Every structure is written in structure tokens, then in C-alpha cells.
Amino acid sequence: MGYISELRKTVGHRTLIMPCACLIIGDGQGNVLLQQRVDDGKWSYHGGAVETDESVEEALRREVREELGVEIDDPRLFGVYSGPAYHHVYPNGDETSCIEIVFTCTGYRGEIRLQAEEVARVEWFSRETLPENLSDNPRQPLLDYLALFH
After folding, report:
1. CA within 20 to 30 Å of 140's CA: 25, 52, 77, 80, which one?
2. What pTM, to 2 d.p., does this model score?
3. Considering the chain, what percentage of its residues have pLDDT values greater than 90?
């Protein structure tokens, strides 16, 4: 996160508006692959901040490659989520007002290799089995996506 890291040197923990490329990986039958974050132990979908002059789709592919070690097939724009519900405070005190640009896909290439410093593990979940310690930001996009299968 070069751009954000540089900004943090100037603004400290103050709130930054952060466009994020996010991905819901589904199996086409109502299950989603989530990752458990190392920093707070919460479950989330995949993705992260868009860097300077990077397209949203480039950021999406880069983040998934970094976090999971796989290439994604045919990401489709699902929705854009923002507002007070997407204000996030990281364990280190950094605050962001996220603009979540959420994509979906049902396939990826390669074998999952987790980025150990960010991702503790991945698991498949259905609407009924979503983890209690789900991060706030992905909650509504995941519920909207999983509603398509009921």
C-alpha cells in the first residue's frame, strides 16, 4: 500500500477516503470464499486499496494475487458501497472512509497460497454459516450477493 503509507506519514491516523477494489469469490451455488485477516482475526472478502494511476480492475487482480496467490477469471462489477457504515478503524488506529467497489467471480486459476502477513486462512461459507466475527465492510455486500441464491 505505497500511496496510503506515504499519506499516513503526513496525516497520521486521520480518516482517509479510500477507494477499495473488493472481490466476492462464489461457487455459483450460494457459497463464498472468505479470508480471515491476521491483523484483527475477522473474516472478509478479498481486495484492498487502489494505488495511484491503477485501474480498479488492476488493483483487484493485484490484491487477489498478493493475498491468495491466484489469478481470477472474469470479474464482474457487483456494486459500489460507501457511507458511514464503511468507516473503518484498523487495529493500529488508522481510520478510513472506504468506497468499496465490489466485484464477483466464480473461478480462479492456480493453487491458493496465502499471504502470511495478511491472511490467516480461507474457508467457504453459506449465508447460514457466515462467521460471527465478520468484518463490518463486507457484511452488506455479502448478504446482497448471497440473497441472489435464496
Report:
1. 52
2. 0.93
3. 91
CATH 3.90.79.10 for the 21-147 domain, yes or no: yes
Can you tell me the distance from the alpha carbon of 29 to that of 35, in angstroms, rounded to the nearest whole number? 19
DSSP string computed for 2-68: HHHHHHHHHHTTS-EEEEEEEEEEE-SSSEEEEEEETTT--EE-EEEEPPTT--HHHHHHHHHHHHH
- Nine cell digits for residue 88: 473503518
Kindly write down the DSSP assignment for every residue of 67-101, as one continuous string: HHS-EEP--EEEEEE-SGGGEEE-TTS-EEEEEEE
For 50-68, write each residue's pLDDT tens digit. Answer: 999 999 999 999 999 999 9
